[in-house]
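[09:14] KT: can someone run the structure on this one? pasting the chain below
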Amino acid sequence: MAAAVLGGCASTELDYYWQSASGHLSMLSAARPVPDWLEGAQAPDKLKERLALSQRIRRFASAALHLPDNASYTRYADLGRSAVIWNVVAAPPLSLKLETSCFPVVGCVGYRGYFNEGAARARAQQLRAQGLEASVYPVPAYSTLGWLNWAGGDPLLNTFIHYPEGELARLIFHELSHQVLYVRNDTTFNESFATAVERLGVRQYLASAASGAAPEEFGEFTRRRTEFRALVRATREQLRDIYEDKAAGQERQHARKEEAMRAFREAYARMRAGWSGDPARFRNSDRWVSEANNASFGAQAAYDELVPGFEALFEREGRDWPRFYEAARRMSALPKDERHRVLKELAAAAAAEPAPVPREAGSDRAAALTPATR
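[09:31] RB: done, C-alpha cells below
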C-alpha cells in the first residue's frame, strides 16, 4: 500500500499527492512509542495487553522469521476511524484487468489509496461515469517499505490492534515482508510474496509462540478465509473464461457474467449460514460480496495468485527464511512474465507431490493446524 503515501483525494494530481502526504504525516505525528502507552495512566488495560502482545509478535518476526528489526510497529496511534486508508480499484465491464496508476519510486499499481472515505467514493463515482466498474474497500494498514523507519517507521494502529492474536501476527508479518522485497510494477508478485510470508510465518508462530486459545481461534478464522477465497477464486476463473470468449459476443458475455455473479452471491449466502461467531466480524466480507464486481475480483487476484509458488519455493529452500528471501530476490530480477511463470511451475510441481509432514517445533500442535492453514 506504499502508493498511499503518494496519493490523495482531489481532482488534480497535485492535490492527490498533497492529501496523501499530509494524511500520512498526520498519522505519524499521532504515533507514540509503545512504552509510553504501557507506562501511562490513560491507556485502558485492554489496549495495554494488546500493545504488549504486539511487541512479542514483533520480536518473533525478527528473531524467528528474519524479518527486519527496525522501528516499524514499535509505536501506536489511534486515528479515530475504522481504516487507515480506502483503496479504489477499477476495471472494464468485460475484463478483470485493473486500471493502473503510476507513481515515483513504487511504479505502477492497480489501486489508489485515500485517507478520506468520502474522497475515495467520489473518485469511484468518477470512474463509473467513465464506463468502468469501481470498488472501494477499507485497508487497516499499509507499508512504506522501510523508507520512513528514520521517522519512526510504520505504526501500530487502532484499525487492527484489537485483531485476535493470530490475525494480528498475520498482518504484522505481511507488512514487514514488504520491507524485505518489493518489485516495481508487479503488484501480484509483491502481494503474493507478502501473503505467503504471513501464512508460513503464522503457522510457525502458532506452533511455537502463541498464547492460550490463539491456535484454535486462528484455525476457525483460516477455515472461513480459505473457504471464502476458494469461492472467489473459482468465480474469478469463471469470469475470466467468459471474458476471453470473444466469439460469444458482448450481449451473451454480459448475460453469462450476470449469471455467474448471481451464483456467486447465492453460494456465499449458503457458506455464510455455516459460520459461527459474532456477525459483526463478517461485515467486511458481507459488504465485499454485495458490492463485488470486476474491480474487486481483479484486486483480490493480486493477493493469492502466486502464493502457492512462493510456498513451494519456501519448501525447496529447506524452510530456511534467509535462503527463501534470497531465492525470491533472485527471482525478482527475472522479467515479469518469466518470474510469474516460474512460480506457477513451482506450484504445479508441488501440487503433484505428496504433502510434506510438518517438522516445526511443537510438531503435534503444528500437525493439527496444517490442514487448516495450508
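[09:33] KT: thanks! Residues 1-11, 358-374 have pLDDT under 50 and may be disordered.
[09:34] RB: yep, looked fine to me
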